[in-house]
Write a structure and sequence with these properties.
Length: 176
């Protein structure tokens, strides 16, 4: 595990010097745990989404569709996993987005597979269509647990640790 002096491990050098060392180590550990969980879950999530929609549409998942789903799952993991990890390694004050914003784009991977085999879009509510117009199959994950239930606690721990460090920094600055 990286130390709190390592800017890539938990934040910028300026932020780390001001943060409580135990808080910085915990935040970095929770961030790594979340990133590891995302890496472990993404490929299987893509495959499961394709299978669920295919079974609902046609009653089965042909082998060639299953193989395309595997490829799409690996691509999601290989492309989005590093993005999430890089974001989580940034200092919290340098994070201009959040992991769920990145993970919402994961819906594109099973969508490509499903569109390619001619699965028609599902009916969605007006809000879902407005917020996620390209999500033909209502797949966009809205919480970590949508990718895998085991990510629920990892996401909560990381979010709470990030909020704690943020609050401590603002208090040291005289802000609340």
């Amino acid at each position: 595990m990286a130390t709190s002096d390592d800017p890539g491990a938990g934040g910028s050098a300026a932020g780390d010097r001001a943060d409580d060392a135990d808080d910085a180590v915990r935040l970095a550990a929770y961030a790594e745990s979340l990133a590891d969980g995302v890496d472990a879950a993404l490929a299987g999530w893509v495959e499961a989404q394709v299978a669920t929609i295919m079974v609902a549409w046609s009653g089965e998942v042909p082998d060639e569709v299953r193989e395309e789903a595997r490829r799409a799952g690996r691509a999601a993991r290989d492309e989005l996993g590093p993005e999430v990890r890089a974001l989580l390694r940034l200092d919290i004050d340098d994070q201009r987005t959040n992991p769920m914003s990145i993970l919402r784009t994961a819906a594109a991977y099973p969508t490509v597979v499903l569109r390619a085999v001619g699965v028609p879009p599902v009916e969605r509510d007006r809000d879902a269509e407005a917020h996620f117009p390209d999500d033909d199959y209502d797949l966009v994950p809205t919480r970590f647990a949508d990718l895998d239930p085991s990510l629920h606690d990892a996401g909560l721990r990381w979010g709470a640790a990030k909020a704690h460090v943020h609050l401590q920094r603002r208090r040291r600055e005289g802000r609340r």
